[in-house]
Design goal:
430 residues, mainly alpha, 3-stranded antiparallel beta sheet, binds D-malate, Rubrerythrin, domain 2
């Protein structure tokens, strides 16, 4: 007999169907609860709400497990390339060599953005944050490719939109930075691999080509993989919610970029470095800031520590920490004052009982911020790099939503405002 959960409300018992995932996560289905009882569930921030069934990413926060399509993140980060992982997330299987070559070739053929994008970029003031530019330009792709807004597109047309977005995001990202510093745009070079091409466009000048460092290219490839998906996080839920209204892929991803920008989400990696720099400016005494973090009357908050769903450690942070050590060594910056501060905070978080009890261990944003800084990535670009990495996950989740024909997202609420009252003409108001 199918398992059910019995719920008694107002003296009436109803049976809610229990559903179980392939990794034995269980939920009870409250889809008919309101019709049957008049009640809705209340869960601000959806902390305990399964908003969808998804076959893309499995995450076990208690055990620190993260798998894309069943493959452990540790194996993918060590052995795969970012585009291979993108293919896996979007199409569900690891590509054969022929499939991969075709995918990579198609992406390399779509890296140019329409020239009119330059005019849009010209309209942004130099004070524009690259994340704001990225979200806007990704949304503007709907104007350059108007057929992309049709909800009824063939699989071939959808694939073309997917390839375009993966190919162009690095060009848009690099140009959003060049625009913010008033430097000339560098055009993509299709013979370079995905990550190297991005670094080339970000760091080269018409007068001088950026010299690729294989350690940096490999670490960035790893970072993109580690960020590629994270089940129903804030930006992915945004992409799914926007996509559920049949909004286009570009429009939905643009919304995801804006959700990611927030300092409580992807923007945290930028905040980590800004916090380290503030501590350095203050004289570098980490014990003072550790005491501030413990003081509940002090608004200071350690950025890059703890995680909403990982209860013991963030498996991505474990991998990045190793990569960070390698990159810092290879670049010869392991003794910089900023990294000394980072190491001291890391040490405190891992050993001080206060942080251990509260599970405030360094997370992925802590180490990614440090690596990006060491690589010479401008601080305002940190979250943009997160967005490039997260793109395949957003695409896969948007595609899955469509394939599963999920209904439009429409949460309910518990109204706490005024009860009915009569309109008062302005002259009679106190
Ligand atoms: C992410 O990778 O999206 C972040 O760790 C945030 C989250 O999962 O809630």
């Amino acid at each position: 007999m199918a398992e059910t959960a019995d719920l008694t409300l107002d003296g009436k018992t109803i049976s809610l169907p229990v559903i179980e995932g392939t990794e034995h996560e269980k939920a009870f289905d409250i889809g008919k609860l309101r019709d049957q009882t008049g009640y809705v569930t209340y869960d601000p921030g959806y902390k305990n709400t399964g908003a969808t069934k998804s076959a893309i990413t499995f995450l076990d926060g208690e055990e620190g497990i993260l798998r894309y399509r069943g493959y452990p993140i540790e194996q993918l980060a060590e052995q795969a390339s970012f585009l291979e992982v993108a293919y896996l997330l979007i199409y569900g299987t690891l590509p054969t060599q022929a499939e991969f070559d075709a995918f990579r070739y198609k992406i390399s053929q779509h890296t140019l953005v329409p020239e009119d994008v330059r005019k849009i970029l010209d309209g942004f003031p130099s004070s524009a944050h690259p994340m704001g530019i990225l979200g806007s330009i990704v949304c503007s792709l709907t104007a350059f490719y108007p057929q992309s807004i049709s909800p009824q597109m063939s699989a071939e047309e959808l694939d073309l939109n997917i390839v375009r977005l993966i190919a162009k995001i690095t060009t848009i990202a690099a140009w959003s930075y060049k625009n913010s510093v008033g430097h000339p745009f560098i055009y993509p070079r299709n013979e370079l691999d995905y990550t190297a091409n991005f670094l080339y466009m970000l760091f080269s000048y018409p007068t001088e080509e950026y010299k690729q460092n294989p350690v940096v290219v490999s670490a960035l490839n790893k970072l993109f993989i580690l960020h590629a998906d994270h089940e129903q996080n804030c930006s992915t839920s945004t992409v799914r919610l926007v996509g559920s209204s049949n909004a286009s892929l570009y429009g939905s991803v643009s919304a995801g970029i804006n959700a990611l920008w927030g300092p409580l989400h992807g923007g945290a990696n930028q905040e980590v470095i800004e916090m380290l720099e503030a501590i350095e400016r203050d004289g570098g005494d980490t014990s003072k800031f550790i005491a501030k973090a413990k003081d509940k009357n002090d608004s200071f908050r350690l950025m890059g520590f703890g995680h909403r769903v990982y209860k013991n450690f963030d498996p991505r942070a474990k991998i990045i920490k190793k990569a960070a050590d390698e990159v810092l060594q290879a670049l010869g910056v392991q003794d910089s004052p900023l990294l000394k501060i980072a190491k001291e905070l890391e040490e405190a978080a891992l050993t001080d009982q206060y942080f251990v009890d509260r599970k405030l261990y360094p997370n992925v944003d802590f180490y990614s911020g440090i690596i990006y800084k060491a690589m010479g990535i401008p601080t305002e670009m940190f979250t943009v790099l997160f967005a490039i990495g997260r793109l395949p996950g957003w695409i896969a989740q948007w595609k899955e939503l469509r394939e599963n024909k999920e209904p439009i997202g429409r949460p309910r609420q518990i109204y706490t405002g005024e009860t009915e009252r009569n309109y008062v003409p302005m002259a009679e108001r106190a």
